[in-house]
Write a structure and sequence with these properties.
8 helices, mainly alpha, 0% strand, single chain, 199 residues
Length: 199
């Protein structure tokens, strides 16, 4: 089985790897992580077994590069006036909007990586578990929790309960306390007018 030229690897898997990087990092950092991923892959490619899962191999490298970037950001001071990240469409037709990526990046770390590696990179949970650690079942659960959180975040707050319209309870009395208001005949619950007067 012949090894594919590395240029073909970049062409076939480059867009997916960039999506993974963009889901884990800010756009400007994602570009750097993408470049670092393929630079490292180029060096290691001659030793990669021919039968290896190239997508999982590249995603693993991208995962490590993203972790390096995030650790570096945690050690660096954040400037008070930072320029906004530019949006890149390199190799990414119909790229989802930044609101989605921001929501993905806001997930807890394990959920974020499980969602990205399974739903963005398309890796089976077995491969996801090999990258992030743990069992395939734990990776599946983390991805499910992450997707549930994304749905709640992106759907917005639940609409308030509509209180207008006819009430199912008894009509409010003059004091608005829920007591039955006497009808036209002066009776409310079967008592006579005389009984009502004695009260």
């Amino acid at each position: 089985m012949a090894r594919a030229p590395f240029e073909r690897i970049v062409t076939e898997h480059g867009p997916t790897v960039l999506r993974v990087c963009r889901a884990l990092l800010r756009p400007a950092d994602a570009q750097d992580a993408w470049a670092e991923t393929f630079l490292a892959a180029l060096r290691a490619y001659p030793q990669l077994p021919v039968e290896a899962n190239v997508a999982a191999w590249l995603t693993t490298i991208a995962h490590r590069k993203a972790i390096d970037v995030l650790r570096g950001q945690a050690r660096r001071a954040v400037p008070l006036a930072d320029l906004p990240d530019g949006r890149s469409t390199l190799g990414l037709p119909a790229e989802p909007d930044d609101e989605l990526w921001a929501a993905v990046r806001a997930l807890p770390e394990r959920q974020r990586h499980a969602v990205v590696h399974h739903h963005v990179a398309g890796l089976p949970y077995r491969e996801v578990a090999a990258i992030v650690g743990g069992t395939p079942e734990a990776a599946r659960r983390a991805a499910a929790d992450g997707i549930g959180s994304l749905r709640r975040t992106l759907s917005g707050p639940a609409p308030a309960t509509h209180r207008a319209g006819p009430s199912t309870g008894p009509p409010a009395g003059p004091e608005g306390d829920g007591r039955v208001d006497p009808g036209a005949d002066g009776r409310s619950d079967g008592r006579t007018d005389r009984e009502g007067a004695r009260r």
